[in-house]
Amino acid sequence: MTRFFLGVVALGAMLFSTACTSMPPPRWEEGGAPLFIEASRWERDGDPIEITADGKILEDGDHIMSVDRAGRVVDEDNEPVAILLPTGQVAGPDDTALGHVGVTNASPPGSGTAWLSIMPNGTVVRFDADGDRESDGQWFGCRGPAMRTCTLITHVIAVRYYRQQPRTSVGVGIGIGF
Asked: Are the beta carbons of 71 and 85 closer than 8 angstroms?
């Protein structure tokens, strides 16, 4: 009886713990779009971002995530963050849509319009809602087949930054202060 009770408690605890965890992105096990990883550095107004030859992503020298040759991005705890699918779609845990990444441009979730692009010389260009351009530093070492990896990492960092921003709402009312 005691063994049965302990078994039921252990099974319940296991089911409860898996119910609270997120599911990895689709195709996580088999991988997504193939990537070429090369040591690269993004000099920008904020802390510099580096991609090491083994796929570690460093922000001002701190390991913040990693990318592999199968398009998977994990955080510093090796938990899934995103996967670049062969179609260019970027998916996150629980099949969350994270946008689209091409070779040199990316669009945010829910939009077909690019919000960033990397020029042939490595300059990162961001586009606002009106289509106005703003420079956001420059990648060094991102050439040829490594360009898509740099675009993916730029996009994932942009999504991360966007999600960290406080949201404000605009209300419509009658007069001022009502």
From this structure: yes
